[in-house]
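Input sequence (173 aa), recorded before submission:
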Amino acid sequence: MGVRLPFGDMGPCEIVWGYGESGEITISPFLGTVTLGMEDTINDIQEEGYGEAPVDAVGGGAQVTLEIPMTRSSVDQLEQVLQAEREGDILYLSSRAGCPMYEDAKALVIKPVCDNVASVNHAEWVLLYKTFPFRKFELAWDRSTQRVFLIGFKVFPSQESGQVGKYLQIGVA
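Predicted structure, token format:
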């Protein structure tokens, strides 16, 4: 039998955005699945004689995203991840257009949770170097649906020394 995943085969997690910075924020609890995804882009090389069948392919980079279904969130948490303006307990959401994200991107750590306690074993953590939240939620008002703010995080390849081109690492030293 091979080596198992350091963060386990299943279970909930805790997320810290701005990891290692002053003002880091713990994002929890969740309702639903926290999803980290990575998909490579592949560009086919074609020749007329083979029709639609590619004769080769070239990698075109990767897209990495994280989706977090936040529930029972605090106003502090929502202010940060929704990029909201705040006056007391009132949050104002506006359009973000024309603003680069990378310069405001922060490190994010995913820690597995067991018995409602986040792991303190750094080898079980997943560290994403540069992340920035974006909004993609729909809130429901009815008699049986719990409201969830689905927040996406754009994950950028790092441009920092020692991590250039890397998105994440499994296990934190």
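Checked by second reader. Residues 13-42+57-170 form one domain.
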